[in-house]
Specification:
This protein has about 140 residues and is of the alpha+beta class. Helices cover about 20% and strands about 25% of the residues. The protein has a six-stranded antiparallel beta sheet with strand order 3-8-4-5-6-7, covered by helices on one side.
């Protein structure tokens, strides 16, 4: 079942380096969800890259964040909401938030925030799943 809070995030447009409900990129959506829904503040990174198309910088920032002590890598089969799905999309890094066993919330350039099924389209693109340290022991 998709949680009711998802509806308040669906329809927000993509905005490069956006960090508000007026628009956000994929990390901005993840950071906003974590803060508003779970009370966990994630780093913004908005001033550390010029555009989401800067694949090298964005990949480096995500690598630094995901390998920090704040995150634990988990198997996709063990994933649970609100784990972060790290994906490769046309050679670029992309992230979304797991909201149900086979659904995740994300935003892409030129689209609005939406909830999509992981299978069959997105599963092959998922490279890793991360659980925030504050949620490791949460039920």
């Amino acid at each position: 079942m998709i949680p009711a809070w998802c509806g308040t995030f669906v329809g927000v447009p993509f905005k490069d380096r956006g960090r508000t409900r007026e628009g956000w990129d994929c990390w901005g959506a993840v950071a906003t969800i974590y803060e508003e829904v779970y009370g966990i503040r994630l780093p913004s990174f908005a001033i550390r890259y010029q555009t989401a198309n800067d694949r090298v910088t964005v990949a480096r920032l995500f690598f630094e964040e995901s390998t920090s002590a704040r995150w634990r890598r988990v198997d996709l089969k063990d994933a649970r909401p609100p784990d972060v799905l790290a994906m490769s999309l046309a050679g670029a890094r992309h992230v979304g938030v797991l909201v149900a066993p086979d659904r995740f919330l994300h935003v892409l350039a030129g689209r609005e925030t939406c909830v999509e099924r992981i299978h069959p389209h997105w599963a092959p693109r998922i490279e890793a799943v991360y659980r925030h340290e504050e949620l490791v022991l949460a039920t």
